[in-house]
Each structure stands twice: as structure tokens, then as C-alpha cells.
Amino acid sequence: MGLFTELKDSISRAADRLFSEQEPKRIGIYGPPNAGKTTLANRIARDWTGDAVGTESHVPHETRRARRKENVEIERDGKTVTIDIVDTPGVTTKVDYEEFTDEMNEDDAIRRSREATEGVAEAMHWLREDVDGVIYVLDSAEDPITQVNTMLIGIIESRDLPVLIFANKTDLEESSVKRIEDAFPQHTTVPLSAKEGENMDEVYGKIAEYFG
């Protein structure tokens, strides 16, 4: 009986561990086009898994479909969090094909604008239905007070999702982190340069703290 009891207890403990493990949290990376969302997603994924999430480009709307990198385990300051990164298309109120005509012919520009519009709709679906938290990326060299940013932050707040605002591109001369802090004082703002890998220790510390 003693051996049977020990075996039963061992199986029970293993089952408890199995069912107590939480699914990775889906963290959506949101923000306007060209804020550096994919650059940040790639930086995080490469640092912790060795793989990239998607293609980076200076052309707006390079990301036109949500892309997901699963089971990214981040450890910082004694905390560990496992997340699925969801790199979403840049959200804007209007996608004009003329934005792309300097980089491609008119037919390709029109096709890209259609795909980008569909990508905005997909990003909004993820935000309303399928993410557990948000990393909101802003270009710190641009004015953060826009209709899109105000709308998206409002939706995030209405869903009561944990959110971190990342003031990206601090390597640029015209960068102003304070401008973003002043625009959204109710949320934590973390400065960084995803391109240069600056301040990533704080980035990972905040991710572990907010989403762990």
C-alpha cells in the first residue's frame, strides 16, 4: 500500500504542475506605422530565441499581417514571463497608395495599400479579442497626440489590459521622451532604441514586471 500511495501522490503532484502552468500570455505590439514595432519584436525574439519575427523596412506598412512568435521566455530581476509576441500592422485612419509610389510602381502601391487596410482591420480584431496585454510603440521623434494613438490607448484602457508605452528611436536627435510621458501620464513610458539595442535591460525588466 505504501508504494501505491507514493505513486499516486507522485502522479497527483505531476498533474497539479501540468494543469497549474499558465498558457503564454499574448502580448500585442501596437502603434502607428513606422514606429519601429517589428524592429522591437525582432530585437526581443532574437535576444531570447535567436529567431526574428518579420521583415523590417523604412517603408510604411511593411507589416500587413499580424505575425506571432510563440513561447518567448524572458527573465529579469528574479522574474520570468513566457509570452507570445504578436507583431501587428501599424494602425492608421487612412492608407493612401501614394505613400508607396516613391518605392514601387502604381499597381504595386495600390495592392500594398489594400493589404495595409486589411492589416489595420486585423490589428483591431486582435486588440478587441485576442491579446492579454499591449506594448505600445511610439516614435519619440514624432508628436504622440494623434487621433489614432488616443483611440487605441482608449480601447486598451476600456479592456483593462496591462500596457507599457515604449518611446522608441531615442537615438534620433529630435527624440523627446518627455513629450510622450506628458501625452499619456497615466501609463509607464520606457525609453529605448530598438534599432541600436539601447536600454533593453529596462525594457525586459518592465515586461517581466507588467506581464508576469
Kindly describe this structure:
The structure is a single chain. The chain has a six-stranded mixed beta sheet with strand order 2-3-1-4-5-6, with helices on both faces. Helix content is 41%, strand content 19%. The termini are far apart. The chain has 212 residues and is an alpha/beta fold. The model is unreliable at 11-20 (pLDDT under 50). The protein is globular, with a radius of gyration of 20 Å. It has helices at 2-20, 37-49, 106-129, 147-158, 177-183, 200-211, and strands spanning 25-30, 67-76, 79-87, 133-139, 163-168, 189-191. It comes from Natrinema soli. Pfam families: MMR_HSR1. This is GTP-binding protein. Residues 26-169 form the G domain.
Beta strand count: 6
Spatial order of the strands forming the largest sheet: 2-3-1-4-5-6
Multimerization status = single chain
Mean pLDDT: 81
* H and E order: HEHEEHEHEHEH
Distance between the termini: 41 Å
**Number of separate helices:** 6
Low-confidence stretches: 11-20
**Main beta sheet, described?**
6 strands, mixed
Domain G: 26-169
Pfam families: MMR_HSR1
Protein name: GTP-binding protein
Organism: Natrinema soli
